[in-house]
Amino acid sequence: MADAIFAGIQVAMVLAVWSYLYKENIFSKVASSIVISISTVHFFLVYVQRTIDSAVIPLLNGRISYIIPLTLGLLMYTRLTKKWAWLSSYAYSLQIGLGTGSTLTTVVASSITGRIAMLINEPFKGATMFDKLSGTFLFIGAILSMTYWLFTREATGIYGYGVKIGRLFLMASIGMLYAEDVLWSQSLFVGAWEMIIDNFIKAVILGIPVG
Amino acid sequence: MGEQRSIWYKLGNIDYRIIYLLVALMTAWPLWSPVGTPMTVGENVKQYAEHIRDMEPGTVVLCGFSGYMTMLPDIEPIYLATWKMLFEKDVKIMVRVTDVDGPVVIRQEFEKIKPEENFGKVYGVDYMIFPYVLMPTATEIAFTDNIRTVYPVDYYGTPLDDLPIMEGIESMHDVDWYFTSGADWGNQRYTIPYGVKLLCWGTGTGLLPFVPPFYDPVSGPCYGYVGGASQGGELELESGFFGAGVKYNDCKNLAILGLFAFVLLGNVSYFGEKYLGGS
Description:
The complex is a heterodimer of chains A (211) and B (279).
Chain A: H1 2-18, H2 26-60, H3 67-76, H4 88-121, H5 129-147, H6 157-205
Helix pairs in contact in A: 1-2, 1-6, 3-4, 5-6
Chain B: H1 7-12, H2 16-32, H3 43-53, E1 60-65, H4 72-88, E2 92-97, H5 102-113, H6 115-119, E3 127-130, H7 137-145, H8 147-150, E4 177-180, H9 188-191, E5 197-202, H10 204-207, E6 222-227, H11 228-239, H12 244-276
Parallel strand pairs in B: 1-2, 1-4, 2-3, 4-5, 5-6
């Protein structure tokens, strides 16, 4: 019985959100407000609990050094007042400085030199002739795509053709990103449909066992 | 009297709600009665599965679990198939929850898989779960250097030193594979200093456009990847552990046909109006 009630609530919420596709209405507004408020409360409670477990309790148990991260965290909230907002810059600068310093240890090797090495190797690493040709095609595409971002000379003549082809490669990449986004949205859509059909229509209304 | 519009214009301006309805129906159809649209397994998915199959007994695997409720339909097929493949092997599995609602999701997933019942695994001996910890850069560096500084206890509050699985595992030097949702600089914090190999799993939109440049099945840093429910279905096919992924592929393939029909219609309308005229 509890499962049936729970499935009914799920279906009602999904249909309320989907009703927005027809036009904005009170049901879609109520459903989205419920979801947002529950998520906010959930995240808030998890983070508060986590702060208590990982910093406040150790501090109360005598680990005095935990006063430093707690103080830095509290300093962030000084931005709420004009008079004391400058104090938050200590917390921000420490965090950004740490982040930048630690990031540099891997970002150069992985995202700069690593990518250049991968690009140069691309035409040679394929096992078959097709793979090698494909790698060469990607290599040329990458070089031409880079020319699109050179603004120091006018895109005319042979160079202009290179820029145009580079733009096609960029458009193909952006198209792929969009396609991935559509597929991702579809997965979520299928998930919601599965819940309606399997958990509600088949299991609750028709009484068909769902595996 | 209103302006007369050509048939081409009308074709290109069909009420968008008809598109929604068509896509909804085509998505729902295979859920009611599977159609069985053909599927092929991509090379990246084969390599992902192959590397799991090749893991030696005693291999230490760290799984960065970023399962969260709103994205679950896109990633759950990958997670479930991967868990089953890993639990079939005699490897040590450590799960690190990286999202705020991950603890709820991971509990649900393991309730579905039943590692003790179906695979004869024992919590604390064959696998363990770390609690959720917000992991900014400084914390992650501390974690890679010494696991116990960030996680003194596991998900259930047991000290790590009381778990047999954690014996001899101190830092990333002791980990062989890391399952993660990307292969960029943040994840290469595990590969560059520690030599941990990456296998990537995640949502299609968050993983597929970004991981391929780092993919090389022989030299890494990413040795294989699976992104999104579509490739999750491919992994189910490859591993033999069938679940929702294959069904999702059926739905998505049909829905894409519906979308494709409207893309075609839009183009016919555009070129018809441009070249064949009409006011």
